[in-house]
Amino acid sequence: MTAPFHWIGQRAPLRDGRAKVLGAVRYAPDIKVPGMLHARLVTSPHAHARVRGVETAAALAVPGVVAVLTAADLPDVPARHRHTLLLARDRVIFAGQPVALVLAADEAAAEDGAERVFVEYEPLPAAATVDEALAPDAPLVWPEGLPGETGEAAAHGADVGGEERPLQRSNVANRVHFSRGDVAQGFREADVVVERTFTTPMVHQSYLEPHAVVVQPDPLTGGATVWSSTQAPFYVREQVAAVLGVPESDVRVVATPVGGGFGGKFLLYEPLVALAARAVGRPVRFVMTRLEEMIAANPAAAGRIHLRLGARKDGTLTALQAELTFDAGCFPGAPVGIAAVLLGSLYTIPHVDIRGVEVLTFKPSTGAYRAPGAPQAAFAIESALDELARRLGADPLELRLRHACRSGDPMIHGKPWPGMGMAEVLEALSRHPAWQRRDDTRRAGRGVGVAIGGWPGGTEPAAAACTLNRDGTLHVHVGSVDLTGTTTAFALLAAEAFGIPPDRVRIVTGDTATAPYAGATGGSKITYTVGAAVMQAAEEARQQVLAIAAEELEADPADLEIADGAVRVRGAPDRAISLGSIAAKTMAFGGRHAPVFGHGRHAETTNAPGFCAQLAEVSVDEATGQVRVERLVVVQDVGRAINPLLVEGQMMGGSLQGIGWALHEALVYDEAGQPLTASWSDYTVPHVSHAPARLETVIVEVPAEHGPLGARGVGEPPVIATAAAVANAVADATGVRLTELPMTPPRVLAALRARRGHADG
Amino acid sequence: MLRLPPFDYYAAPSVEEAVAALRDHGPDAMVVAGGTDLFPKMKRRQMEPRLLVGLRGIRDLYGIRRLEAGGYRLGPMATLTQVSLHPELRAAYPGLTHAAGVVSSPQLRNAGTIGGNLCVDTRCTYYDQSYHWRKAINFCMKKDGEICWVAPGSPRCWAVSSSDTAPVFVALGARVRLVGPEGERVIPVGELYGRDGINFLAGKRPDEIITDILLPPAEGWESVYLKLRRRGSFDFPILGVAVALRRREDGTVAEARVVLGAVESYPVEVEEAAATLVGHRLEPDVIEAAAKACFKPARPLDNTDLTLYYRKKMVPVYVARALRRLAGLTDEAQRRTA
Ligand SMILES: Cc1cc2nc3c(=O)[nH]c(=O)nc-3n(C[C@H](O)[C@H](O)[C@H](O)COP(=O)(O)OP(=O)(O)OC[C@H]3O[C@@H](n4cnc5c(N)ncnc54)[C@H](O)[C@@H]3O)c2cc1C
């Protein structure tokens, strides 16, 4: 199939947009099952404590309370992952950790009951920061060995994918090390070296809809049906089946429409709720409160990156050295590996040495958040590169272009970059009027900064099926969760491949019992993988339809076309048969044609990296330290914009979240590990008023070799570069380099004052 | 879901009956107007009244009206939206209507009242938290606990006065009529406030209701309000600067009041600042001097958003900007210091 296309590239509004606006979408919290109980967590107020006892009598006396579960009521599942931590057995390791679960006939009774569960704690010292956790005498989050380690592996410090494993007990969960060339030599060759430490805080994905799950246990099999606001229904099935001890086929997971996930909704409390439902033999609904979300979910990891970057006077990069320290919270899994790889793989630099360490602290474990690890890495490398350009008197875009990796260049782990458009994106930005006229902007008192970020893109096998209905419409069956408008894209892809308008296509999203497999919605891979399967399925359905029509019309299939809802003989429009009658002939008693059933299977293993460059124009109020992003230009290689409207929506949404990283958001804990930002009054997500007055998008299309019609992942890249672009713009406006996110007014003001002090002295 | 604790609700038909209910139930009872401050606080168990006396049904408490003798009478049940959009008030008291218009968010301004805004609870990082959170730190002296976490060893509570309109009312010289079981009285708005974060409404007895807010005639007066907060919406003030002044024909200041919000448990009137203005034109050096005079009297503590050093540094900046606005000068930020 080649351009020009009928439907691809049209601006198609979100398919479920109207239902969402009308409030007609049924989210997980709207699910009601007869006999359902409501659950409320009793959470630990201490970051580290021994649990001495749990007193449940007063809670059980609350009218409506049916049960109060503690660890004693649940099977002793090893806490290999955060989602099998279940209820605390003898020790709590973060403030917010569930200790008991109250089940009641209504939410109010559950809440009242939870207030009346009395837990006796013996507080223990906690290490709330990576520095405390790395101190020689630090309390250990896992004194008996890291979760998931077998005794033997722990004893030998076995290598599990990472490069090195700690040999003795400590809060170090993982180390990675990548190098190329001789970094000492590289710095000897350098005339200019920038050395800085960049920090980014723990931030929250801040989806509007909280985590929500309803579980109906099946008394016959011991399995369950699970409705969950999840990005990963097949993964939820696997893990719930594991804790229930039943075959996966006895668990059915229905992914409800997700009211925002951003990586935070793979799997969290589904296993706990499934066990609770089985324990009481009744359906259980658990919808997290915002407080629980802020203290007991899985936010993004904080990172500290110490970095040295060297170049010759002529602007040739010679050396990059970095140490990354990521705060994983109480379980391993912080994206230090991805961050290290991205940090070391964007530019061609002969001598590189990057070490990363993932440290456990007494805080909630961290999870994925839109391009996990990438914003942290981009803030460091893109800020440092900008400073280097400034010191060299070089053009920051040219410096990037000169060293930008291209398809086939080795990444820091040695594998080559697949086809990608980093250079094309930088070139497109350099042609943009906002860059061309940057001097006018500066004269008007604003700073201009640029940065780029990349995301490798994920892959996972996926399948799809297509059926034709009597009314001439096409049903496309998929198992993927739509976070970004992928369902709308599938309709365009199927329409194009089959030959009918998108409004004649319906996407039917099944559950784990009915749908073909699709991987989790994460890693910017749904259009790339499921989309390809959808096209294949539609194409196969088309061939089946043509074959049936050829028989019915007594024509050669090669002479047939699908147009206006019918199959016709080219050049003889009166020889036609409608799609509806073809379907009818396959669904009739005694019919002689098999039903139309196209299927698509896809297991692409080549990634399609997505790059997004951004230009920020900021104004800095030098008396107050307040930074305003006045204009943001977002340039992204999407391979092929199947639906530019929603592609632009992703680019805008992602970069607005980037403004949150840059200027506003941080989960703050006190020395004892007590969360200080446990509500949306204290945790400051950006508002619509923080959107730049001018938010512009530029789509670049460097086709992905294996993507459907060249498409590559779109969702994650736009969040990556924003904070660095804003920091570079602040530096441009003021001469001051901010190295700590978020760039709050006090931090900006302190930096400005330090500069003044310097100038005066 | 955060749960309201159980309580009784009495829809008072008149001020007299409302006051009688307050008298009869003593400290167990509280007045509720828009509920935008009270209900969230009850959900977090910062307040646990057994009886709420609702003012919604009392007609006399609504309305905005020009007084015959000059000035205006605001019914305490006028919403913040009504106050902020009132054309005559906007012309006469721009500082006040601006302040009312920057309280929290549009939805809350539609429900929140001007009377409730004068009585809005003081705020503190250690107090404005869920019950669960406060329990984890063993509470604080403002509710359920013994000590002040901001200033351990302090005998008093340092929670911060966080009303946007109170500093403007004080600057404008407004008064309130209070009606209680023993009758009624009229006091300046500034006298409502005590010097303590717990008993912050010391000038009003718990069984008294604000029935009128009285604004003096605006003739000759100018006013302005500037608010510092993290974001342009939703957030409480972490500094408020209200200035009201009257200038003679030659441009010299005849009378002035400079009042700071969110730096103490009450709106802080800085008389030194006013004194530096009186007799002078609003010229840059005069403005600078008045701004400087506000630095010392503002003593923010580490108990609201952003750092205390930052908030203190912002006091002269915001005072200067407020005065520059009145003088018709541009902000000094326009001058690039780089
Ligand atoms: C998210 C959020 C953000 C907010 N941001 C701001 C902000 O930026 N600035 C700000 O100033 N406020 C803010 N508020 C607080 C509140 O919304 C406003 O102060 C509002 O004006 C309170 O009015 P109300 O009618 O809702 O008061 P209520 O909640 O009904 O009452 C508040 C207090 O006043 C007392 N009271 C009310 N009316 C009378 C009366 N006539 N006589 C005697 N006592 C009375 C009540 O007993 C209670 O103690 C915010 C609140 C929330 C939830």
Task: Characterize the structure shown.
With 761 residues, chain A is α+β, with helices and mostly antiparallel strands. Helix content of chain A is 29%, strand content 24%. Chain A contains 21 helices and 26 strands. In chain A, strand 14, helix 10 and strand 15 (351-360) form a beta-alpha-beta unit. Chain B has 338 residues and is α+β, with helices and mostly antiparallel strands. In chain B, 29% of the residues lie in helices and 19% in strands. Chain B has 12 helices and 12 strands. Chain B has helices spanning 15-25, 38-43, 80-85, 87-92, 94-101, 106-111, 114-118, 131-136, 165-172, 271-277, 284-293, 308-327; strands at 8-11, 29-32, 51-54, 64-66, 72-74, 175-180, 183-188, 209-215, 221-228, 239-247, 253-261, 268-269. In chain B, a hairpin with a 6-residue loop joins strand 11 (253-261) and strand 12. Chain B is globular and about 60 Å long. The termini of chain B are far apart. The complex binds flavin-adenine dinucleotide (FAD).
Largest sheet of chain B: 5 strands, antiparallel
Number of helices of chain A: 21
What value does the Rg of chain B take, in angstroms? 20 Å
CATH superfamily of the largest domain in chain A: Aldehyde oxidase/xanthine dehydrogenase, molybdopterin binding domain
Termini separation of chain B comes to 50 Å
Helix content of chain A: 25-40%
Shape field of chain A? globular
The CATH level-2 architecture of the largest domain in chain A is identified as 2-Layer Sandwich
The most extensive interface between chains reads:
A-B, 39 and 35 residues
| Helix content estimate of chain B | 25-40%
**What letter string, H or E per element, gives the SSE order of chain B?**
EHEHEEEHHHHHHHEEEEEEEHHH
Keywords:
heterodimer; A: 761 residues; alpha+beta; Aldehyde Oxidoreductase, domain 3; Aldehyde Oxidoreductase, domain 4; 3 domains; seven-stranded mixed sheet; five-stranded mixed sheet; 21 helices; 26 strands; globular; B: 338 residues; Uridine Diphospho-n-acetylenolpyruvylglucosamine Reductase, domain 2; Enolase-like, domain 1; five-stranded antiparallel sheet; four-stranded antiparallel sheet; 29% helix; disordered C terminus; binds flavin-adenine dinucleotide
